[in-house]
## 1
Amino acid sequence: MYKAIFMDFYGTIVYEDGEVVKRISQMIYETGNAQSASQVDVYWWKRFKTLFENSYGETFKTQRELETQSLMDTIAHFGSSEDGEKLSKEMFEYWMRPPIFEESKQFFQECTLPIYIVSNIDRADVLAALEYHGLNPQGVFTSEDAKSYKPRTEIFELALRMSGLKANEVLHIGDSLSSDIKGAGLAGIKAIWINREGKEITEVVTDVGNLMEVLTYI
């Protein structure tokens, strides 16, 4: 019997920043020497991923720091004349006011279990987005609090410790197989994958098409 729900935020409750990333990549392409906007996007993601994977404990950097550094590196790599600080600000503004998935507020209203947010984005940005949409979870735990990012287990362990819950008492919901599902599994927490696009499942995982379907599991 589950006693609480852990939920990812971006990509699960609200939309990811994919459209903003595409727009910024296009701007860098148009003002630099990249062969295409997709080339910019791929380089930027690889650079961010490298920084991200090496950010934990004493080497931890916030999501804003990682995003700014990876973006600046990408602009320099492609010789773009774009203003990195201006583009970073556009990203940050999105994180604080992201569009919300249609069923998210209904899920919060109808879920009978306490909901805790477990997110890789910085605490201030998550809190701003929650306030913007009028959502009031039982608690919020971020990578900034744990000094570690999913799929590492520190953030899940922090959430369990601070909420007074055991791993088998929690169900984690997330949209990322590599971050949410893997990370929760490593922490001994059952997870459900939000698969809104109906992607083909290549591994053993419980998936649903939207948040309301999760209610059948609790």
## 2
Amino acid sequence: MKRARRWLALALAGALSLSLLSGCAGNDTPDASASSPAPEETQGTAPQTDPDALVIAEQGIFSAGGTVIESDGTFDVANYYTSREGSTSHVDHANVLYQIPEDATGLPMVFLHGYGQSRMGWMTTPDGREGWSDMFLRMGHSVWLIDQPRRGEAGQTSVAGTMTTTPSDQTWYTQFRIGTYLGGEFTYNEGSQFPQGEDVLDQFFRQMTPDTGMDNAAGDQNIDNEVVARAVAATIDEIYDRTGQDSILVTHSQGGLPGWEVPRYTDHVAAIVAIEPGAAAAVDGEAYNAMVEQDIPVTFYYGDYIGEEFTDVPAAAMWSMMAASADTFTQGYNAAGGNSTVVHLPDEGITGNDHFMFQDLNNDVIADHIEAWIQANVEA
């Protein structure tokens, strides 16, 4: 029986081989009905390139800064899987994703996100449009996108945090001046430039990222500004080593606070663009004096719905107080010989913007405004 099956298999294999040979022989004869390009149509034709294509010459990811902590005792290799004595942990670093465009003509731009965020916010928008990182790449800048220590892909921490599952979408939505939550629905401020729709909000809220070193359960935003600043400074030093260029530091919200401290730890900051920072640096403080000494140009950007006149915007008065610190800083900084400007977008005829102006429908208009400031105020 087994012998019969073997002969049957050989016969089938032979038939298959003849069939394949026959097919190949048939392919030697061109099919009159088949269309094939003439030789002159295929030779010497260069591939077509989309003129709007963004061409990246180099990209990568690395960690910068941080420290190494070690536990007491001696590591027990016999119990390597459960032993934690005499062990080390690499923690409190920044994680940096970078892209360098084919035609890099401008200074590198380093992007530092704010509270509850990661670098993702600079890279896209909740409705899938182009983010600022791509826009500034098109303008000729390399971009260096940071996940700050204890956040996102830089989650390894020397400080044990406590996560919370307490819902907070409505809180942050209101604080960010997008709108608020009334009658069981998310509302939008009048004339809002924030993209709308349930799918958009779903994407926006899923950007939120916990801080692994924060006691979230207690509501304590105990972010260590020095740890973050040192890691950002290490990133900027690494960029200088790689490119020979100083960097423009772009900060947002909570990221603005350690952003002011960065020039204390590096002298390779070309400028600071602060997007609605939690506060400006204190006049005559160490960070302020480091910026004055290095003659770093500074600009602040604030969106719409800021001021007590916006009675329907619960966070408007709070943001008015925070924005006032930029005026105090600018007055002192310019008097000390520095260069600081405060841009309120409505004064520029750009309206409807919230705390996430880089994700709004007119984010390209604001990016162009920032690039114009860079061209006018920052030496390459």
## 3
Amino acid sequence: MDDLLTPHGYRPRVADAEVERALRASPAVLIEGPRACGKTWTGRRHARSEVPFDSVFAHRLAAQVAPMEVLDGPVPRLLDEWQLAPDVWNAMRRACDDRGRKGQFVLTGSADPPDATTRHTGTGRIMRVRMRPMSLYESGESSGRVSLGELLEGGSASSPESPGGLRDLVAVACRGGWPGLLDDAPEDAQRQIRAYLDEICRTDISRVDGIGRDPAGVRRLLASLARNVATEATLKTLAADLAGGEGTLHPTTVKSYLSALSRLFVVEDLPAWRPHLRSRAALRSAPKRFFADPSLAVASLRSTAGELMADLNYFGLVFESLVRRDLSVYAQAIGWEVSHYRDSAGLEADMVLTSLDYRGWAAVEVKLGGVALVEQGAATLRKLRQRIDIDRMGEPRKLVVITAGGYGFEYPDGVAVVPITALAP
């Protein structure tokens, strides 16, 4: 495909392979994820023609009055930010039916509008691919020496000591995985990310579903989510922060705000895993709260790299957010999904990987580093293994402690230690 509309200096994404598979299997593929995560660039890499709805008003107008004309062009045809011209959805669906061929359209979307009676869901015609900001492997800050897919199949966790130190990882977390900011200093990137959040608070969160919301309240909610990142913060806790000292908001109001932020792909809850247990401990079902990228948590608190270095307890939560982002990217690519574990006896695992075809599970603890913390994480994973009903759930594919740096290795009992800067899909 020599005539692809590829941007200068395009960095390959893990999702590229998913998009290619989806185009071979379906008439259309929808690439969705937060604004500025690289969806348009990836869409162009797989397209032969393009309709940019976000930058050309005439295209949006044409989608209203003559949507079928907008769809005419070399295929795959990219419909960029389709939600800005929602009339094109049903027209595209009809075109898929009329043509009866695979690989006709690539759509990108930074918001997931509520389904309406005028818009068919696209079942059987459109496959969805979730994109997130760049993982460290995609941005070139992971050596990729340890493949997650191979590790889950019995591969080695061995890797040499990671270059750089904690200060470098703090800078990367502040900058985030946004393709347009990879060359920016952390403080410059944070200014742009704060502006990004301001725009979400001011216009995007009301536009996504047509419900007006107070921008100051959204900012308070984002700050509360940032303070509680990587925790199971309840709606009641978030409601108290969102009220801003002026009484208490009802949890359903908070739920509405969170739903809108989720439709904008800004926040991403990590659901609880519900395995069969050997013990009598009851499973907890609350999700963990995360942003799409760790830099959003930093920006929501208007924090800095220096402040994070001075508060490593909080940076540990930001680091867990970074690991959650990267594991979500890698796990999706190999057909696994990510959740977390917590029970009434107080045992928890930061993340659990489960195969979509029920072929197995793996558990992950996230630690910044240091012998004592790494051994603590390994001990937690061993306890978890004892608590799971192996007869019904099977042996874990792997128990992994993910660290901020250092060497990759395995304990004699097979518990792996892998620095995030060595991990790949």
